[in-house]
Prior knowledge:
By secondary structure, the protein is α+β, with helices and mostly antiparallel strands. Helices cover 34% and strands 24% of the residues.
Amino acid sequence: MNIATREASPADIPAVAELFDRYRQFYGQAPNQALALEFITERLTRHESVILVAETARSGLIGFCQLYPSFCSVEAKPIYALYDLFVLPSARRCGVGKVLLQAAHAKAASAGKIRMDLTTARINTGAQSLYESQGWVRDDVFFAYSRQVTRP
């Protein structure tokens, strides 16, 4: 499979939104194409994230990853949070995730980031194996916490 990667453009928004909706479903969310389209449109048009896509001439877009700019306060340097990585089930085990991770690394390096961080579900062992094979190191020092914000 000949996989090309590139940064998403506004013309890619509908196709990326479709992949994004499937990504959300993978993590247990109900399908919502309108929400996915609105979210991806806002991220790209507001330049709030970098979306990299993987494609083939035969199948079109088959995967994406989304990078959010952030900072590491301890190191006082910019980083990327690789929050989303999704590959169509039909294209898995063909190297698409690996190519996207390599493209994300190259983008981070060219953008002056010192690190990329990501989290994944504990049960997503396939992704964990991929990350570790690409040099990602699992954090065994810090715990991750989150809290829903409720309106007063």
